[in-house]
Write a structure and sequence with these properties.
This protein has about 180 residues and is an alpha/beta fold. It is built from 4 helices and 9 strands. The strands form 2 sheets. A 6-stranded mixed sheet has the order 4-3-2-5-6-7, with helices on both faces. A 3-stranded antiparallel sheet has the order 1-9-8. It binds inosinic acid and magnesium ion (MG). Magnesium ion (MG) binds next to loops.
């Protein structure tokens, strides 16, 4: 698995330090309420499980699964809900926890979808952002790291469902997805 990676962009230590920082910010910003962290499956799951342990106030968690990517490396722009949340989010403070924002189309769709359920607030927390790839105006409230347009894997992020269990984030060798 390690041999398929050309460069390590973010090692374990760097990611953990950022997760602690984001956890602190969220704990301060939401100190008077109990936010619902909504993890976008499957890529957001490693980030969520680390992040929630670094939040010192009570939180609830829920999960949503969408399809937009298939097994390629480019967003189709078409988003479909595979698994909806279970929580009633009316009047609640929502934090969407995502692995990466690329075109932003997925998050725009989810945010609009949640807004229709009358939450008190909806914010976005993503570990990675590819600002040059945005195809829509999207406000990211908590962002771990900005990256370039390379396809990255590890720490929850996959290519064709592989590499999610790498503890770091790296750039996949181009030959892996062009073959
Ligand atoms: P968007 O709708 O284009 O913003 O796509 C967001 C989703 O695409 C993310 O939640 C990821 O699942 C996936 N994605 C985008 N870029 C990458 C990448 O570099 N590596 C792995 N998955 C990615
Ligand atoms: Mg995702």
């Amino acid at each position: 698995m390690r041999n398929d990676i050309s460069t390590i962009l973010l090692d374990e230590q760097t990611i953990q330090a950022k997760v602690i920082e984001l956890g602190k910010r969220i704990s301060e910003d939401y100190k008077d309420c109990v936010p619902v962290l909504i993890c976008i499956l499957r890529g957001g799951v490693v980030f969520l499980s680390d992040l929630m342990k670094k939040i010192s106030i009570p939180v609830e968690i829920d999960f949503m699964s969408l399809s937009s990517y298939g097994s390629g490396t480019e967003s189709s722009g078409v988003v479909k809900i595979r698994k909806d949340i279970d929580a009633n989010i009316s009047g609640r403070d929502i934090i969407i926890v995502e692995d990466i924002v690329d075109s932003g189309l997925t998050l725009k769709y989810i945010k609009d979808y949640f807004q229709r359920h009358n939450p008190k607030s909806v914010k976005i927390c993503t570990l990675l952002d590819k600002p040059k790839a945005h195809k829509t105006d999207i406000k990211i409230d908590y962002c771990g790291f900005e990256v370039g347009n390379e396809f990255v894997v590890g720490y929850g992020l996959d290519y064709a469902e592989k590499y999610r269990n790498l503890p770091f984030i790296g750039i996949l060798k181009e030959e892996i997805y062009t073959n």
